[in-house]
Fold each of these.
Amino acid sequence: MAASSIPLPASEPLGASPWIPVPFRVEERASETADTITITLTPPKGIPSRPFRPGQFNMLYAFGVGEAAISIAGDPDRPETLVHTIRSAGPVSAALSGAAPGSTVGVRGPYGTGWPLASASGKDVVLVAGGLGLPPLRPALYEMLRHRDRYGRIEVIYGARTPKDLVYYRQIQEWRGRSDLRFQTTVDAAGREWYGDVGLVTARVPDLRIDPSHTVAFLCGPEIMMKFTAQALAAKGVPDGSIYVSLERNMKCGVGLCGHCQLGPDFVCRDGPVFRYQDVRRFLSVREL
Amino acid sequence: MSDSIAVGGRYVLERAEFPRFLLALHEAGFRVVGPTVRDGAIVYGEIREESDLPIGWTDRQAAGQYRLERRADSALFGYNVGPHSWKKYLFPAGERLWTAVRKDGSFEVHPEPVDPTPLAFLGVRACELAAMGVSDHVFAKAGDPSYAERRRRVVRIAVQCGQSGGTCFCVSMGTGPAVRTGHDLSLTEVIEANRHFFLVEIGSDAGAALLSGVPLRVAPEGDANAARAQVDRAAASMGRTMDTDGLRDLLVNNPEHPRWEIVARRCLSCTNCTMACPTCFCQTTEEVPDLSGEEVERRRRWDSCYNSGFSAVHGTSIRATTQSRYRQWLTHKLATWHDQFGESGCVGCGRCITWCPVGIDLTEETAAIRIQPAPAPVPA
Amino acid sequence: MTAPPPASVLRLADHKFFEGMIGGLPERLQAVATERAYSVGDMLVREGDVADRFILVFEGKVALEIVLPDRPRVTIQTLGGGEVLGWSWLLPPPQWWLDARAVKRTRTLEINAAKLRATLDSHPEDGYRFLLHLFPVVAQRLDHTRLQLMDLHGR
């Protein structure tokens, strides 16, 4: 074996493999709705925390079951813990949902782009969340409330199917009590116990107390809800270029290699999930793209 | 004389001395892989000795057709490309990424080591060098460690094409047939009435080092010209052409073109084109637990945008129709690849045409869209 | 049921529904409009009753409810200030097909349906303008109903 005489390129130090999940400890697990929980994770001893930008996601791994892309729902100012809100929808999310305190969940990430908070500086901000669209927006809300003076009015519209499907229920009451934030909730249908709004999030848009030309909007929820919300915002005068959406596709690798999440030229996992709406609108309007 | 061999030099290796060259590769510790006849096709496999090469064979290719035929001469590299590409060595069709074991209520992950044996790719075509360049960019951008690890252990011995295949269009894609860059060595096989030799061009220091002890002489002008004529002949006889002028915009702006529906009537969504393509990189992973549940391995394997579950979100496929999948493949390959990686994902090797069971030809499909494209979108 | 109207006077012309309407219709209708205030829990209309008035909500919140014999009462939409309570009064037979209940203190102006129809009939230009303002309300409710039908959040 004389291969050493051949001047092959020297081994370059590689970064950590992107494929290795790091086992994080489940510190807390709280029930949000019948099928949704929130877990709080901490890194193993000696492993640094994972700073993240609001809007990013992690690949969470349930040992022996697999991985799922889950947005980060915690406070970016407290990166020593990772907070994820998970709806039990398939085998992986079901296993993750069942992760009890003391057990272990693997983490790869954070991945993707974040909400462009810098572009919202000095402007009114509208957050519109549908269903499980609130968790990916919550880090942005934490961040804005911490630096409240950087922003004009902050309006949040949160829509869910029924009152029972609202996540972060207690926290929403706190937010609704704040004078420097208007947080509206609306549901598709409700019983008499609900005194809040019933109707779509789009119906709340005309009433937003904003200066439309100086407003940035972040939307997260079902694609069709974001599409109609963007229309309603545009009708109110919010410039197209100031509307951002968080998209969901089949994210498997997180680094733009597996190919599953492509939307036109974009890898949603790497170039998104947050996009400027005017940049992706043309792709969203093509059937089965 | 190998001590004086330098990058850019041109030498003659007589056919009779080829076994010495092969021996030098093996003696340098390389596992040599290259073309070999198996199951009626020229595929890439282990080359232990000269007789493993497809001596005297050629391939006849057309849309949906591939046949081996005997040549009139005994060329070692007298074919074009087969169903395999070198990607199977750099990005195996299936591989283990890591194993994990339960430990103290948690788990421990062990990355899978990469086989350290250096590989000599023997018989790399110009289009295939280009394809490896494309793959290098894709995998480097994602920071994939096992591809990088394997890739740096490879020397590439190119062999210029002396003929073109029935489905080739490397001239259109600007990737061949002449080998210009990316090779450690480049060979041109020349067979004259009473002479059979290789013109050897040195592409790198690693390439020069491979020739230690191999009998060579500096190439006379005539031999170099004879080699060039081979490549010129291949360039002049391309089986296909593809007009790449404005191709990216053409496809991106025509997602609703009626041609997609027409081609989908033939497309079987079989994934052959993506498996044969030397640059298709889509992949998936699977979790394989052992019976006890104590140990698990993460495997990755090739995936294809033609698979129904490929785009599935919450169990529902975004691209439910064959039409949308063919459009995704072709648009990605020829158009959005430019946005993602600054180049085309197609190198013009023609494999997707040859190995399509119904003979769908991407050069024909793009031409059909070009004939009557949708009107340019009205600026917003 | 109905609390006495508060001191301040609501004007039709200030309601969003009439925003941008030319021809002075809201001013002329003001005379036939009645101001009302509802406390939490008060019913504005009941399913099956004659739809005898056009109700414009100025402030508060009104829940539109559907009652099914075998299911709990369901709120399918809430209306706030600037919204109007539907179009049943315009279509024969004029009959409410759902319940409307105040879930906040609510102030309205309500126009007698017969008088309103008569005004619109006798002044077709006004009638056309009025319908141009009413139609978007109908269209938007239809759009919203379609989206609700998709049960997007439930997936």
Note: The mean pLDDT of chain C is 89.
Amino acid sequence: MNDDSIQEAASFVESDATVLLVDDEEMVLNSLQSFLELETEYNLRSFTTPAAALEYAMDGPVDVVVSDFLMPEMNGIELLGRFSEKHPHAPRILLTGYADKDSAIRAINDIGLFQFIEKPWDNTNLLVVLRNALERRYLVKTLQEKIAEIDRAQGKLSGLQNDILRTFI
Amino acid sequence: MKFSHKIFLMPLVTALAFSVIFALTQRATTKSAQTIDRMRDEFFHSLELSHDLETDLLTIRQMLTSAVLILEADLVGDADSVATHFRATLLSCQGVPGLAGSLEPLRVDFEEFYSLGQAAAMDLIDRGGIDSEIPKDIPVRVRLMDERFESLNGVLAKIVDDTNQELENAIDRTGVRIGRVRWIMNVTSLVFLGVLVVISILVIGAIVRPVNRMSSVAQAIAGGNLGLELDHRSNDALGELADSIREMQSSLIRDIARREKAEADLIAAQGQIIQSEKMAVLGELVAGLAHELNTPLGTLASSVDVVERSRGIILEKCSTGSDLGEVISDPRYQKAMQALEKGVAGMDTALIRIGELVSGLKTFSQLDKAEFQQTDLNEGLRNTVKLMDRSLPQGVELHLELGEMESLLGYPAQLNQMFLSLIMHAVRDVTPPGTVTVRTEQIADQIQITVRDTGCGYEPDALQALFKPGFKSDSSRVRMDWEMITCNSIVDRHGGSMAAESEPGAGTTYVINLPVWSHDSG
């Protein structure tokens, strides 16, 4: 994917998208943040513990979650699983240095992970994945809105239909 | 049950022979005594008889003489009855052995004497006494009669003498016989004694020696020496015993060989397990290390990328901007400058982390081998504690109870690092207020170091996991922990052992034993 396409994809994305970053390593959060601050206008939220991230997710907006795998108390897969309860449409990305791909792939299937990125990561690649995730998030959101609109229209239509039927009967 | 027949027959045979000899000598003695008895009877009988005969003879002579002197014919008749008695006595002597030969001349002499006497007496009486003229032949006849009487007496005396002689001879013979019997007895006793000695030697040879041999072999077996060979072989109970000892010996040898092989197999298997465990540890270590390195590497790569991008933006702004003020006030330029700073800081953090990891790895693998030397553990502990004092959390007390000990051959730097790791681990487990106590003590040629904390303690599984490589989570982050593994490997390298005991909530005690004379194994 070239930079043009990235720009194109970015045009789908709302500039105020909220991205959650969870890692027990402060330096990872810092480097992710400095990169994303430079290249995007995302609303970044960093957490060093899964518990703090979950607490924020109780009532804060969440569009994409990027999480480490190995963390104290709770691992990344568990954390991302918990996120799907509250924010089922937010794409979830696992950023892991742990080489156990099997469990990561299983997690992708089990909890419907959007992507799995290995540490050390490539910033450009990370950005593409994030944009794709947000695009999907946007598309899903739009789709939901359209479906709701259609539902509403269909409701109206069926109301009309009922009216017509009642008029005739 | 079988016994050596030969051995038990020998005293029996000897006893039998001895009793036969005893019976024979007994019989011989009895016979001799009987003979002597008989001879004595004979002697006394013949003495009695000769006395009777002598008395009779004297009486007859007296009577006949008196008859001649007083011319009493009745006396001749009396003499006749005495003569009859004499004849009867003589006849009765016939049964006495040894006398028989002497009797006939005696009888002949007596008859001659008696007929002479009787005839002389009758002659005188017929002539009317001696007053009348004494016939000339009377004195001749009396003289003849006296002669006869003398010879009769002589014969009788001879008989007595003969008998006496015979008796003496018999006694002599008996004495000789008794002497011979005594000799036989002596010889028999000697032979019996000899036989006893021979039997003893045989018994010793047949029983005691093999039994002694068996006993010494059995003792050797009990003492663990299976090399002694038992050569006793026989068809009796001793032989059976020897056979069973041999069987036991060979089965022991077989068992030991089997066990030695099993032990060797076990050791080989253990070696393999240890080797594969080492490989597993190494694998886990490498996996953990990769994870540990990926975090700072990711940061580093990202930071480098950020710096690169920032540099690009800054260069672009500088080349397109009309003046410096405009460039500096451009928000994009400002953002890039910030990112540049953050990127450099990130690089710095990542590099420090990588440096820490590499130095930890170096300590673990002992790439920097410190010198192997005589080490004063107590001194090392004091220094370690001094180093730690400043970093001790409030409310955690560190006690040192250092016992006297010899210096130890080892790597001081490693030992100090081990103490530091161990004490730091203990201190981390303690929630203030609490104590960590370090105790040293020499027990024989072992130095014991005990580190006891009043901290959180561990469940058995968690305690075991402490000594295995893997990820440990503390309050802030998950990290690869090789503190305890490093401690263990340092203890290992010094030929010692390390153990830990813990009770959740009560604390943990780590015990390290190091030999005073340890060798460089690494």
Note: Chain B touches chain A at residues 287, 290-303, 305-306, 309-310, 313, 335-336, 338-339, 342-343, 345-346, 349-350, 353, 471, 473-478 (CB under 8 Å).
